[in-house]
Specification:
Layout: H1 3-39, H2 50-63, H3 68-74, H4 81-87, H5 94-109, H6 120-135
Helix pairs in contact: 1-2, 1-6, 3-4
């Protein structure tokens, strides 16, 4: 695998991780809306209004800022290396080749799930389960 493909793959994984986080947040907003409407005896179709709007706005703003620095926060072993490799893709010398080899070697040991691990994810899932069961 070359470094360009590896960097594209990393950005794609970060994209999916952010999209998953936005989806969970949207699910929580939807469930909170439904619960509020059930408690106030309002039509449930009102719950369809805030969730898609929230999803579109949040997804657009979070996808607009996909940066290698975000990947480096999730994988601290690659701190500064990804940005340096991305900045020097068009150059070819011994130091850059070693940097690329080092990054590819480290990426081979990292699992994709590292991108989806977030402190808020278990709490969002737990909140969704609690809200779902309280609606039923």
């Amino acid at each position: 695998m070359d470094i360009k493909r590896a960097l594209r793959t990393l950005k794609r994984l970060l994209f999916y991780a952010k999209l998953f986080d936005v989806f969970l947040s949207t699910l929580l907003i939807s469930l909170i809306s439904v619960l509020a409407l059930v408690l106030t005896d309002q039509p449930l179709w009102y719950a369809l209004l805030p969730a898609p709007l929230f999803f579109i706005i949040t997804a657009f703003t979070s996808m607009k800022t996909l940066k290698y620095k975000d990947i480096e926060k999730k994988i601290p072993e690659l701190e500064w290396q990804l940005r340096t490799a991305a900045d020097n893709l068009d150059k070819d010398n011994e130091i850059i080749r070693r940097l690329h080899e080092n990054i590819l070697h480290k990426l081979a040991t990292i699992k994709d799930i590292a991108f989806f691990k977030s402190k808020g994810t278990p709490y969002k899932l737990l909140g969704a389960i609690i809200l779902f069961t309280s609606i039923i």
